[in-house]
Amino acid sequence: MVTQGKLQINSMENVEDKNSGRLGCFGWILVIISLLFIIPLFPVTMFMCVKIVKEYERAVIFRLGRITDRKPKGPGLFLVLPCTDTFVKVDLRTVSFDIPPQEILTKDSVTVSVDGVVYFRIHCPISSVANVSNAHSSTRLLAQTTLRNILGTKTLAELLSERDGISLTMQEALDEATDPWGIKVERVEIKDVKLPQQLQRAMAAEAEASREARAKIIAAEGEMKASRALKEASLVISESPSALQLRYLQTLSSIAGEKNSTIVFPLPIDMLQNFMQRK
């Protein structure tokens, strides 16, 4: 029964689509009158009937309120009948607009100001004219609400670290919502996330404390490695008494190389050893 009902609905829609292109007897009478008016005054009416659309434009023609041929005209020349035909030009180029800054309360109760940019284009001129009154304005308003709804489910850390994922989610949501309007959302980007001043200071203090902690850890590791190196050097020097004397002479040489007015020479190591042996 459900299948039969769907078939009946589809057949009714097909009949309506077929009937939408028909003008009826009164419509054809008006068309014939327009043609009779055009033929005698052709040189004058030529400028009224011939229209031009550019390569990136399409024209949706309404004849007595109905869309003719269920497809847009263009690019190039096309004819319209005076008094019976009206047309709307649709631009197929990619359009970008800025999402104004939105005050958003994140999932962890932090108020942030977020703005973005959306790139979209019209891929079905008839749907953009017949299904929505103003496709561009409707898309702008929908982008603002979508931004607030999606970012309201994210924490501050996710908002700062997962911009690409949030942009992709917004693009999919906007594309699905605007598809009946004949609009294709190509790209969504989050431009800037502004945090409150108090939160910025708290995050800066936290980052500074983290950097200081890492610096202390690195300095401690360096001192530990240096102490191990000094211990190994002392063991090497203790194995050879002459090495200590050479080190002593090397120290004196480095001191003498500097421009010092006074140089204090320590007692020789041999004399200290003699005193140590007497004790």
From TrEMBL:
Task: Report the locations given in the UniProt record.
Answer: Membrane
Q: Where is the Band domain?
A: 48-207
Q: Which UniProt keywords apply?
A: Membrane, Transmembrane, Transmembrane helix
Alphabetized Pfam families for the sequence: Band_7
Predominantly, its location class is membrane
Residues annotated as transmembrane: 26-53
- SUPFAM superfamilies xref list: Band 7/SPFH domain (SSF117892)
Supply the Gene3D superfamilies for this chain.
6.10.250.2090, Band 7 domain
Quote the cellular component terms of the Gene Ontology held in the record: plasma membrane
The entry sums up its family as follows: Belongs to the band 7/mec-2 family.
Protein name according to UniProt: Stomatin (EPB72)-like 3a isoform X2
Q: Which organism is it from?
A: Scomber scombrus (Atlantic mackerel)
